[in-house]
Design a protein that fits this description.
The protein has helices spanning 3-41, 60-75, 77-97, 103-106, 111-133, 145-148, 155-168, 173-184, 188-215, 225-229, 232-259. The protein has 260 residues and is mainly alpha-helical. Helix 7 (155-168) packs antiparallel against helix 9 (188-215).
């Protein structure tokens, strides 16, 4: 045994001993933190600490998943800014509708067309929101799709939560339809038709985006939502949505002509 061999053996023993002491302490700390979530998630907490649970707005597995989708929009600066931009455009459009009653004396023949344009304009704004938020719902799960489908939750429940989110973002269409009808001073029959068609149109368009986004998700561009929305199936969803909005506007135009 040479001095170099003894030094190497002694150095290796020191390294192993130091690693054992430090590694054991780190392992125990990590193990405690890992097990902490299990204890807090149980019905009975041995430490007497009451856990609040996941901040779900709705009950059930679908409710938790829906809450996650809503929180994801709020956590994303890009999506929140996009929604705020469309909200600003909607407010501008509503202020423009306040001048529509002036046409009753100046050009009453144009009123049905103006009413229909306001309906299609609001529906189009909701469609652009659905294109950005609803269509990529499946595609943006690229990295976690294996985890989501391994959860003890039925796929119907997953799809139900996505559909609930798609319908949730169309809820503002109800107060917007009421405000628009009051601003334009619609008659009772036209007012009811306006509210019903706007709500049905926005909900249908949002579900169209979800349907085609689920059938043909573009996982290759999951990080770029604009690229996902403008893929082949995305353009098809936009075309179908525009066609439906046009039909809704034409149907309301016929209703407005018959009532004015």
């Amino acid at each position: 045994w040479s001095i170099a061999t003894l030094a190497a053996a002694l150095g290796s023993a020191v390294v192993l001993g130091t690693t054992l002491l430090i590694g054991k302490r780190l392992f125990l700390d990590s193990w405690k933190k890992a097990q902490e979530g299990r204890f807090l998630a149980g019905k009975q907490n041995p430490h007497g600490v009451v856990s609040s649970g996941y901040p779900s707005l709705f009950k059930g597995a679908a409710g938790v998943l829906l809450t996650n989708e809503l929180l994801a929009v709020l956590r994303s600066p890009a999506e929140a800014t996009y929604a705020a931009f469309l909200t600003g455009l909607t407010i501008v459009l509503l202020f423009m509708m306040r001048s529509v009653p002036a046409l009753q004396n100046a050009a009453p023949a144009l009123l049905p067309a103006v009413y229909a344009l306001s309906l299609t304009g609001l529906s189009y704004l909701f469609m652009t929101l659905a294109v950005r938020l609803v269509y990529p719902l499946i595609a943006k799960e690229k990295r976690s799709v294996w985890f989501i489908f391994s959860l003890p939750v039925k796929r119907e429940t997953l799809l139900l939560s996505k559909a609930a989110f798609a319908l949730a973002i169309t809820l503002p269409s109800v107060p917007l339809a009421l405000i628009a009808g009051l601003f334009m001073q619609l008659t009772s029959a036209v007012f009811i038709a306006y509210v019903c068609l706007l709500v049905i149109s926005t909900a249908t368009v949002s579900l169209i985006q979800l349907l085609l986004g689920t059938i043909a998700p573009n996982f290759s561009e999951s990080r770029n939502l604009d690229a996902v929305s403008t893929s082949g199936s995305g353009l098809a969803a936009i075309a179908l949505s525009l066609a439906y909005i046009s039909l809704s506007g034409f149907a309301f135009f016929k209703v407005a002509i018959g009532e004015t």
